[in-house]
Write the structure tokens for this entry.
Amino acid sequence: MPRARIRLQTGDRSQARKLHALITANLEEGHLLPRTLSDLQVHAGRFTVAMKGRTIVGCADLAALSPSVAEVRSLVVDPALRGAGVGTDLVEELRRRARREGFDKLCAFTHAPAYFIQMGFSIVPHSWILEKVFTDCLKCPLFRTCGQYAMVVPLEDAYDGRDKAVDPVDDAVGVATAPAARYA
Ligand SMILES: CC(C)(COP(=O)(O)OP(=O)(O)OC[C@H]1O[C@@H](n2cnc3c(N)ncnc32)[C@H](O)[C@@H]1OP(=O)(O)O)[C@@H](O)C(=O)NCCC(=O)NCCS
């Protein structure tokens, strides 16, 4: 039987429970911020979701920290589908969306800086992203001892042309199509 291709689409509230399960199952491994179901019901529309058929196999949240800075949050790929480029495609799609939505910078806070560096992010001092410090860090019990790297990529530069990979029909309704061959 042919494998279903993986598509990226905008999340919706009906997916909140499944997003919650996927994120919660990967909290420890990914050092992810815990998300409540009600938070995800409110913010599901900010997610880009990777679908294999009708199953959610990955997700990433584009969270606004300020009018100019957005953050990659809750980036998770189902362990069974890792290493096939799904995570990279999720971050690239967030990057396109952040630029379209007028943000100047996309940031991420992570224990895996190498993963983001290969996608063009740079390590910066936490104090360069004060929006994050005031939004989350100050109330975090691990403030100053969290071990996360602050990563940032500017969005104003002309991107590398992969914007064109988005299916123009799907894009009109806010849905991106991932290059299926990469997941074969
Ligand atoms: C991190 C994660 C989203 C990556 O998803 P994925 O679909 O496997 O990623 P990709 O297939 O796009 O990986 C692309 C490259 O990054 C590398 N990579 C993956 N995870 C990495 C990590 N933690 N550190 C460094 N490099 C990593 C892959 O080996 C691959 O390299 P290659 O192209 O040279 O083979 C996934 O491993 C995951 O869900 N982890 C648990 C949650 C988590 O850690 N979230 C991120 C928190 S910031």
About this structure: Strands lie at 6-10, 47-52, 55-64, 69-77, 105-110, 122-124, 149-154. Residues 26, 29-30, 32, 75-77, 82-88, 108, 110, 112, 114-115, 118 surround coenzyme A (CB under 6 Å). The longest strand covers residues 55-64.
